[in-house]
Amino acid sequence: MSQDPSASSGSVPNYRPVGGHAVLVEFGTTIDKRIHDQVVNLDAALKAAPFQGFVEAIPAYASILVCFDSLVADHRTAEAAIAERLAAEVPETIGAMREVEVCYDPDLAPDLAAVAEASGLSPEDVISAHLSGDYSVFMYGFAPGYAYLAGVPKAIQQPRKPAPIRGIAAGSVLIAGPQCLVSTLTMPTGWWIIGRSPTKILDAASNDRPFLFDVGDAVRFRRISRAEFDARRLA
């Protein structure tokens, strides 16, 4: 997906039928908060006033998949219902502020020095830049609890690595381009590992709230010492 923030804000959505049970509503093709705000607002409007046959909506960076019961609705009626909600006055959705602790000690941040060198900064400058980012949750995907955040400052943005590395620990704080993510499982990644967090993002035992974040939430990172990290991990 393009990362050009100057691209169209996607004021006129494009509708794409998906199978016989869903419509993909596309507002643009970029990682852009203006576009994502439209995704979040449509998601909120559908939750507040679901149309007959509505099943669920799945938001992404620049689009939202609207699923319906094909015995009750079809693509034409779903698109009409979506257009009605887009035309209505919808209050701006404001997400909660979530805090994520992060320790940047070298053994927990194996790529911090490489990001610093590639960015022409010191490791401390990279840390300061990361902490200053304006982050918000744009989507979930790939693995349970993987919340994709936008807002990494341009000064430290790096393309993905040429190849992924296996066995990266859960809680790793990862960046790639304008995106940031806190991993929830031990998995491979081609993103840059610049820290590790003890904050519980995924609670698999919870039926009510398995994920810490909701799409649209704001996120701030708070630096902690190694002693604090170790204590949180043992708690």
From TrEMBL:
Keyword annotations: ATP-binding, Hydrolase, Nucleotide-binding
PANTHER family reported in the protein's UniProt record: 5-OXOPROLINASE SUBUNIT B
Keyword presence, ATP-binding: yes
Name of this chain's protein: Inhibitor of KinA
Taxonomy, superkingdom: Bacteria
Occurrences of domain Carboxyltransferase (ranges): 13-213
Gene3D superfamilies assigned to the protein according to its UniProt record, in alphabetical order: 3.30.1360.40, Cyclophilin-like
GO molecular function annotations of the record: ATP binding; hydrolase activity
